[in-house]
User: Which sequence fits this backbone?
């Protein structure tokens, strides 16, 4: 084979070198890597700052007293519990009568007295654990009450909605998750 | 062989040989194609679809409920999914709203006065001790007619409507009962009291 001349070898070296593409020649692709970096940073910031709140709903029916709404189903062997939230505490009434203080038998007085008054909101500080314990004790008294899930709740006019919801939570279930009275009906105070 | 004969000059490469050598050199020097960018078009398509889906879900979900100083929901240990069907009745610290109407049905008095006897007598049918809030009942009447038709179309019982009751946590029980009673009188047979989910009790 014939040898290449020096000028031919030089030309071959020059022309065979790989050359870099200019941005215009890069196949028409946009370099969006910096843009994605910014988006990722913004996304992290948004996720870190946005507080996600989950809501739920408590089912109920119209107040029974004086209204057209459905009334609580009363059976002869039912507990038929009514909770009355006052500024002095929670009074519990069963089919047999008002439950005495300390949740011991039938008698007058506030069943679960308040532990004081909140100086800011002027709302009673209620003992929800004692309410739960008392409701469980009443439900466990007889096998007839085992399937009872309804409870009627009423309160003094000034009691805040928050206290009502916290009381509903207290009678809904025990700390161990045992179901007590999840079906709540509101009653009008006399 | 004659030593005095001139040496033959090296044979010059032809053009074809030169081109073949050039092609061979180019092949030798050819670098592997380097991937200096990722083709993320497919991923971006997917991201866009997910984003649209998320925005739509958040817009229709009750989780987008604005929380402000005027409306703070109480927390409950209940962990079930919120009920979405129903007419929204919102009771804030200062007003009562029905449905999507931004104009308040009732502007509430000071917390002290409504804690004892609820709303003023001017809003009631039979004096201050009555539970029936007339402006709320009037607003519910219009909403109920629309909801009745919606329920008929959906194949639900049109004789009763459902309400999602969104109440501020400081609302006194008296006002809550007045609102619930008025709802009951306006053929709203079931309520869904909206609360925030919480892991622990009160």
Assistant:
């Amino acid at each position: 084979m014939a040898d290449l001349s020096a000028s031919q070898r030089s030309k071959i070296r020059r022309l065979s070198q790989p050359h870099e593409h200019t941005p215009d020649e890069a196949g028409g692709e946009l370099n969006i890597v910096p843009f994605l970096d910014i988006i990722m940073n913004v996304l992290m910031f948004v996720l870190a700052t946005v507080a996600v709140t989950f809501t739920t709903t408590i089912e109920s029916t119209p107040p029974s007293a004086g209204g057209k709404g459905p009334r609580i189903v009363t059976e002869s062997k039912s507990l038929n519990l009514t909770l009355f939230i006052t500024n002095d505490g929670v009074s519990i009434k069963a089919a047999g009568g008002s439950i005495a203080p300390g949740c011991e038998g039938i008698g007058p007085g506030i069943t679960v007295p308040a532990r004081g008054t909140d100086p800011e909101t002027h709302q009673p500080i209620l003992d929800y654990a004692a309410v739960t314990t008392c409701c469980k004790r009443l439900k466990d008294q007889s096998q007839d009450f085992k399937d009872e899930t309804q409870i009627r709740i009423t309160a003094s006019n000034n009691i805040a909605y928050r206290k009502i919801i916290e009381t509903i939570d207290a009678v809904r279930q025990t700390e161990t998750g045992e179901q007590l009275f999840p079906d709540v009906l509101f009653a009008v105070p006399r | 062989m004659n030593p005095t004969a001139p040496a033959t000059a090296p044979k010059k490469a032809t053009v074809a040989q030169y081109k073949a050598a050039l092609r061979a050199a180019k092949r030798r020097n050819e670098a592997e194609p380097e991937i200096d960018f990722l083709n993320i078009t497919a991923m971006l398509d997917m991201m866009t679809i997910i984003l649209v889906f998320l925005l739509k879900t958040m817009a229709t979900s009750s989780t987008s409920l604005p929380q402000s100083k005027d409306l703070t929901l109480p927390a409950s240990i209940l962990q079930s999914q919120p009920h979405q069907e129903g007419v929204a009745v919102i009771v804030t610290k200062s007003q009562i709203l029905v449905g999507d109407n931004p104009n308040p049905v009732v502007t509430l008095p000071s917390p002290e006065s409504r804690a004892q006897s609820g709303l003023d007598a001017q809003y009631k049918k039979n004096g201050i001790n009555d539970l029936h809030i007339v402006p709320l009942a009037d607003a519910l009447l219009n909403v109920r007619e629309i909801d009745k038709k919606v329920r008929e179309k959906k194949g639900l019982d049109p004789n009763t409507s459902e309400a999602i009751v969104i109440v501020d946590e400081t609302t006194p029980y008296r006002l809550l009962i007045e609102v619930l009673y008025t709802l009951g009188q306006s053929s709203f047979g079931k309520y869904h009291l909206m609360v925030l989910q919480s892991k622990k009790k009160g």
Q: What stands out?
A: Chain A is about 25% helix and 15% strand. Residues 33-49 of chain A form the longest helix (17 residues). The mean pLDDT of chain A is 82. Chain A touches chain B through 58 residues (CB under 8 Å).
